[in-house]
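Retro notes (design track)

What went well: tokenization of the new backbones is finally stable.
What didn't: we kept losing track of which sequence belonged to which structure.
Fix going forward: every design gets posted as structure first, then sequence, in one message. First example under the new rule, 267 residues:
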């Protein structure tokens, strides 16, 4: 337990996880019985090598989650030494390697539990020569998590809470507009923005929709990790389909990371 209602679970996983990319996920069967019936998807939060022997490489894989229902409540009761039935790694992650050479700054925007895959992304981005700015948004300060993790990596971290209990008062999208985008000075000229920049986000759909509009207007490339209900996790059930400019795509198979401009945002 890392905070009220929030848990970090570490799993020992085999060598097949060595090439995991930020943004990918695992699908966990919570119990051996049929309740809950369906697996639960969890973003990969951390990956650490624990046994470097070539013949038996093992990794510690971390997932970060909030207890919200029966599945996560049961998961929080698991003890060290127990086994979990896991499918993974699944999905497609962030395409950060392509943008590393072009971006002077990477902007990471997390809404609530959206920090889960983005902390792993930040670990990979610190090897670039670009500045990393992390914006974390939540309803109040009790729901701000991973702030220290990002700071320990050397990221510049800014907080937004809707009730103003910590940092900027308002939504993280408003913080993004105020702190990152170019502003007009007293003479009427636009202040320069640290371009080119790349943005990455994970959080509620309303947040991602607003960010997408902002980034399209300002010509900022934005990759988003979508949160959708997943039945199978491998693209068979079509339960997590989202509409894109190229037709319907399966979040579990074609995503969960997409270029924001490719998504048709509907509510």
């Amino acid at each position: 337990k890392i905070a009220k209602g929030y848990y970090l679970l570490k799993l020992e996983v085999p060598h097949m996880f060595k090439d995991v990319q930020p943004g990918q996920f695992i699908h966990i069967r919570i119990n051996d019985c049929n309740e809950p019936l369906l697996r639960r998807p969890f973003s990969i939060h951390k990956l650490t090598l624990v046994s470097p022997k070539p013949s038996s490489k093992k990794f510690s894989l971390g997932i970060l989650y909030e207890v919200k229902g029966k599945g996560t409540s049961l998961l929080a009761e698991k003890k060290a030494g127990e086994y979990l039935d896991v499918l993974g790694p699944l999905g497609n992650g962030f395409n950060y390697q392509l943008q590393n050479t072009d971006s002077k700054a990477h902007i990471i925007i997390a809404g609530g539990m959206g920090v889960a895959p983005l902390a792993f992304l930040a670990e990979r981005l610190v090897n670039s020569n670009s500045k990393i700015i992390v914006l974390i948004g939540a309803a109040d300060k009790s729901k701000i998590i991973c702030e220290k993790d990002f700071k320990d990596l050397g990221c510049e971290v800014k907080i937004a809470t809707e009730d103003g209990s910590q940092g900027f008062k308002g939504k993280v999208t408003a913080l993004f507009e105020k702190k990152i985008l170019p502003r007009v000075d007293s003479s009427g000229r636009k202040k320069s923005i640290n371009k080119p920049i790349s943005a990455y986000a994970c959080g509620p759909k309303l947040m991602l929709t607003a960010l997408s509009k902002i980034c399209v207007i300002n010509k900022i490339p934005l990759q988003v990790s979508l949160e959708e209900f997943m039945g199978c996790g491998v693209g068979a059930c079509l339960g997590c389909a989202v509409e894109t400019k190229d037709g319907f795509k399966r979040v579990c198979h074609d995503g969960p990371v997409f270029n924001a401009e490719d998504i048709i945002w509907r509510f």
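Added context from the reviewer: The CA atoms of residues 58 and 128 lie 26 Å apart.
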